[in-house]
UniProtKB/TrEMBL annotation:
It comes from Lentzea atacamensis. Residues 39-225 form the IclR-ED domain. Keywords: DNA-binding, Transcription, Transcription regulation. The lineage of its organism: Bacteria, Bacillati, Actinomycetota, Actinomycetes, Pseudonocardiales. This is IclR family transcriptional regulator. PROSITE patterns: HTH_ICLR, ICLR_ED.
Length: 229
């Protein structure tokens, strides 16, 4: 950039710092490079592949998976579905349904609800306009809009979302949202693990949630975002 614009290096770094603070540039510390920031999402199709978000999230997910010995994901909302962009396995790989590119009903997944808990109620209503919108996989999870709203309110207050056999019997997940510079939920980080119980146990897994939230907060900071108040 300094060479192409014929600028001093100090001026170039100052400009990059300003662009990063505004969300238009992103620093990739592991790669020692800069790239497009989250704000670029609003300006054109260059960001639609989610590449910067994935690259910034991957090392955080890898550390989280190894530390907690559970599968870590990065997911985004795609309509009424949660779309998984990145998956990192722990040292002992585990087989689960949520792989890269897989889409699952957002109201059933912890990642989907972690994001839905921070979008306007009118948007939630638009995504789930009728009872027919509520896909059922295991008999668990919200089956209508009032039930979903109650769950979203509780999970927003709690600070993380939990899924216990809603998607696949014998598995549970804990997720926390990632926010952009406008305090909008742009993604969610999730830990998924084996958990078997005959009925929903009501567990919240606060110790796991603490680590997931820490990773989500770090990714929020990396993309120049601000957590919703």
């Amino acid at each position: 950039m300094a060479r192409e614009l014929n600028l001093p290096r100090s001026t170039t770094y100052h400009l990059l710092s300003e662009l990063t603070e505004a969300g238009f540039a992103t620093h990739f510390p592991e790669e020692k490079r800069y790239g497009l920031g989250v704000a670029s999402f609003e300006l054109g199709s260059a960001y639609l592949r989610h590449d910067p978000l994935e690259r910034l999230a991957r090392p955080l997910l890898r550390k989280l998976a190894d530390r907690m010995e559970k599968v870590a994901h990065l997911g985004v909302l795609h309509g009424a579905e949660a779309l998984y962009l990145v998956r990192e396995q722990p040292r002992q790989p585990q087989t689960i349904v949520s792989d890269v590119g897989v889409r699952l009903p957002a109201h059933l997944t912890a990642s989907g609800r972690a994001m839905l808990a921070h979008v306007p109620p009118a948007q939630v209503r638009a995504l789930f306009p009728s009872v027919a919108s509520f896909v059922d996989r295991t008999g668990r999870g919200p089956h209508n809009l009032p039930a979903l709203r109650r769950l979203l309110t509780a999970e927003r207050r709690q600070g993380w979302a939990v899924e216990d056999g809603f998607v696949t019997v014998g598995f549970a997940s804990v997720a926390a949202p990632v926010f952009d510079h406008g305090e909008r939920p742009i993604a969610a980080i999730t830990l998924t693990f084996r958990h078997v119980c005959d009925t929903p146990c009501g567990q919240a897994w606060p110790e796991l949630a603490k680590e997931v939230r820490k990773a989500a907060e770090e990714l929020t900071a990396r993309i120049g975002g601000h957590a919703a108040t």
